[in-house]
């Protein structure tokens, strides 16, 4: 019974971790059609920025969390204007740009900040126990924030004007422009939002795991898995993709070896993609 | 009368290639530095991989699992030669063949996917291949690598390897060139332009895409096996997602539209960072700088640079601007 | 016009960077060719291949720093004296980028172009294997600063390879020694170890060593480098119901996460790391609440009663790099061992130095007196072993346990 409850709880937390990391990536891919390889690197930068504010400058952790979200939002605006805007629609150029970004961000972090072990202290220490379930507050916080962000994002896309504008831009740029939608402003907003979400994910994971310049690489793999499985074009679907991959990664390794469980996850994803290439909830946007 | 640009253009590039091969043949006689010989050999191997990646892209498919196929070729060849005692020459050939077969088998279900979905499934295949190789770490060494791979030549000198890989890459590139400019190559390009139109004129576009994918991956397997029997030590980090991304970058920076693209792109992006070793930590920044320069200033990649530069001069000097055409006609 | 200017500027920048890179290597090459075996400038060229970029470089960079500290320290002390002539050390540090291609390029460049007869560096198994493939074939001496314990990495088949710092099996012995003293009630241990292709072989070593000490250790719980969350790993380890958990090679992250998650799940028994794990680092990642009943091998600048040499290094490292890291000492020792052997051999001839490295009776290391051994364990006696620092975590604080002798039969 204890194993079952631990597995369920851990599955939920891992899913929340993956959903958090994948949301920004899904936003850029589904809404802007940008396959942002640099998402992992931005996630890493987000974690380091929060570290800089909270540990190096000694600002209150929650305040530094908010501060770094703002900083990363601004960074997203900069990214959109100088890095993504010239290459919108050209997938090849976008690929080169985002891969170059990875090198720049990771090398910069390595030169400036490498060689030290760093982590963010927990935002909320302690363990929460309720009946069979026991989870640390930090993981619970990640779970809650992941769920809240997911809901917020889905509402944003479906219910607000700016969300509908983003969808319109994704479907048909010229048409959207004809409707009076400012393409550049929409793109800027989407990129800033994606970077802010990467920052949230990076900060929470820095508190759960640790910080190093290359932590974005393995997380990128997971984000790609979740988003492609959920389907390009669907933000809400990230919930299901995240749940499936999260639970598989949390439960399988308990019973079989780590290496085998990774293979199984990849095989499952490939099989699903072959049956349903658009993913579970995707639809052809472009 | 305007000269036929196809004829003049093609003659010139053949001379460039022949000249390049001659320079490379004579290189070891002039330069004795093992370091330069080594990075040239690496370039040859990766040119085979990048060239085959570009070959696949002529049919409109971009594969992000190419390094995974290199890995398959490498590990099959290692298994055959190290554990079964087959001669590395034979095991390389068999490995390329087996990679071809595997690519055919997986290519059939993969080919039903198009565009970015194809790219994604190849990406996951690359990850999956690596993951399976990790399971058999007795034979692949897993992350910590495998050593003692049988060498192609029993001498320690790099010169035989240099000439072998030079000949290999020349042969492979000639095959790829002939394929691309043959009737089959034209069907691939037709498929790239429009699936439905190609089907409507009787091309079995599914079959063609599987074929080009399998051929491309076979070359990748050959390159991987070559790398194995040259380096004598391999780790999984040679064939992970980052390695596939590097291959794509080599092709894109060189210019995906031209045949010379992967050659130039690979040569520049393999050799320059290695030659600038004394920059130590900053080398990846140099790599990124090259990528960004090409990205922002050369829409057709490095291979398109001569044409681009010519374009500037044409605009300034004689050209086909309306005024001049009218002037010349009258 | 603007475009042309931009391209010209950009090309100039790239080309000048390249020329800068090449010319640096060329000038050292020409000076190497000039000195080579002649003692005109009295320089000993040592090639050093380190983890400067790439995966895990953030943890392993201090090794390279330690090598440079050693170079300066030895040169300032008067260099190496051979037959009355003073030689200065010149370390040529190269990046292995955690890639076998880059490492082969580096080692080829160092041996053939720069004419180094001595190569040092690197801690990761695939890199070590790549380097020794070339050094063994060319009879170049290669000294690493760590040894995982697997046959392919180091053994009788690599006669020119030496290990210049305590390896994993030496440290494991001290862990068990300490465990016996501090936690005599422990009889069974759950082992968590990285599954990087060496797991099965490491398990053989672990079982053998455990049997010597009377411990029962199960098959290792493996984790891969793609693992983000260690909870399933810890669950598996806890399910074994052992009196202690031990983590090993792989990363500080794993050791810290295992400690943290196990404590959060209510496990109160001892947890330890049998590789280099600095208490302060583990504390940073695991948090004060979980950091108790843990020990590992590491030290920081504030560790008391350091041997004099370690203190000297600390005094150099802290202002320069901000901290003293046990891996800096590893980098330092691999070079210092080499120079002491050269002084004993009184020659730069490879065969003589090799013999000296094997027969040297005592070696001064930053952690105390070291000896060379390992014939029984590895099939070749090329391992330098020396006292190792241990630290523990109790109630969220780092406790320095002192320096412990190691053995290497």
What does this 3D model show about the protein?
The complex is a heterotrimer of chains A (286), B (330) and C (409). Chain A has one domain (2-215). Chain A has eleven helices and two strands, in the order ααααββααααααα. Chain A has a two-stranded antiparallel ribbon with strand order 1-2. The model of chain A has no long low-confidence stretch (mean pLDDT 88). Chain A is mostly helical and 286 residues long. Helix content of chain A is 75%, strand content 3%. Chain B is built from 15 helices and no strands. Chain B has helices spanning 5-30, 34-57, 66-83, 88-110, 115-135, 137-140, 159-180, 183-193, 195-200, 205-231, 241-254, 260-275, 283-297, 305-316, 322-329. The model of chain B is unreliable at 1-9 (pLDDT under 50). Chain C is an alpha/beta fold. Chain C is built from 13 helices and 17 strands. Chain C has helices at 2-35, 57-76, 100-113, 125-137, 168-182, 199-213, 231-239, 252-264, 279-286, 308-321, 326-345, 350-359, 375-378; strands at residues 43-50, 80-82, 85-95, 118-120, 141-144, 161-163, 188-194, 216-217, 221-223, 244-247, 271-276, 294-297, 363-365, 368-373, 383-385, 388-394, 397-404. Classes of the chains: A mainly alpha (286), B mainly alpha (330), C alpha/beta (409). Chains in contact: A-B, A-C, B-C. Chain A binds chain C through residues 3, 6-7, 10, 13-14, 17, 107, 110, 114-119, 121-122, 125-127, 134, 136, 208-210, 212-214, 217-219, 221-222, 249-254, 257-259, 262, and chain C through 53-59, 61-62, 65, 195, 222-229, 231-233, 235-236, 239, 252-253, 256-257, 264-266, 278, 281, 284-285, 287, 289, 321-323, 325.
Shape of chain C: globular
Major sheet of chain A: order of its strands? 1-2
Portion in strands of chain C: 15-25%
Bulk shape of chain A: globular
- Fraction of residues in helix of chain C: 40-55%
Helix content of chain A: over 70%
Number of helices of chain A: 11
- Count of helical segments of chain C? 13
Largest sheet of chain C: 8 strands, mixed
- Computed CA radius of gyration of chain A, to the nearest angstrom: 19 Å
> Which structural class best describes the helix and strand composition of chain A?
mainly alpha
Q: Could you give a short account of the major beta sheet of chain A?
A: 2 strands, antiparallel
**Chain-averaged pLDDT of chain C:** 88
Q: Which oligomeric state applies? A: heterotrimer
Count of spatially separate domains of chain A: 1
Number of strands of chain C: 17
Q: Look at the structure and give the mean pLDDT of chain A.
A: 88
How many beta-strand elements of chain A? 2
Return Rg of chain C in Å: 22 Å
Strand portion of chain A? under 5%
